[in-house]
């Protein structure tokens, strides 16, 4: 229903033969241009995402359909994106972010501890000054 040039979110609804299985709705970003300007211009635009459907406890009918249906593709399909490498890079980025977050938490805990110690020290100094003031008044 949209017109123009750029990118659009499209809705994909998968309805299964088995009436007991709920339909699944997926959303995919349809890109009509190459967003990576450093890439060599191609005749085709590729924007691949990996989605996987896992059927937990499928009905008997669905189990039979999933295991006995013939494959629709003729051999292995070669994707433009190497999903194994992408998965590994994502894991590495997540580990690096986790490590950075742990370091920041440790630093902030140390700062909090130092601030609390400083507050306790200042409270003690205030008490001393108040006690000295009380002694001088008497």
TrEMBL record:
One of its GO terms (biological process) is regulation of DNA-templated transcription. It comes from the Eukaryota. Keywords: Coiled coil, Nucleus, Transcription, Transcription regulation. Residues 1-69 form the YEATS domain. It is found in: Nucleus. Residues 91-132 form a coiled coil. GO terms for cellular component: nucleus. InterPro entries: YEAST_sf (IPR038704), YEATS (IPR005033), YEATS_dom (IPR055129). This is YEATS domain containing 4.
């Amino acid at each position: 229903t949209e017109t123009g040039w750029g990118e659009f979110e499209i809705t994909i609804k998968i309805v299964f033969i088995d009436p007991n299985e709920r339909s699944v709705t997926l959303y995919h970003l349809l890109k009509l241009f190459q967003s990576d300007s450093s890439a060599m211009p191609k005749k085709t635009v590729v924007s691949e995402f990996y989605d996987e459907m896992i059927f937990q406890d499928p009905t008997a009918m669905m189990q039979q359909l999933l295991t006995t249906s013939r494959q629709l593709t003729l051999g292995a399909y070669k994707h433009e994106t190497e999903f194994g490498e992408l998965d590994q890079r994502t894991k590495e980025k997540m580990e690096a972010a986790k490590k950075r977050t742990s370091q920041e938490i440790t630093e902030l805990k140390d700062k909090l501890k130092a601030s609390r110690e400083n507050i306790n020290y200042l409270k003690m100094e205030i008490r001393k000054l108040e006690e000295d003031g009380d002694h001088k008044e008497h």
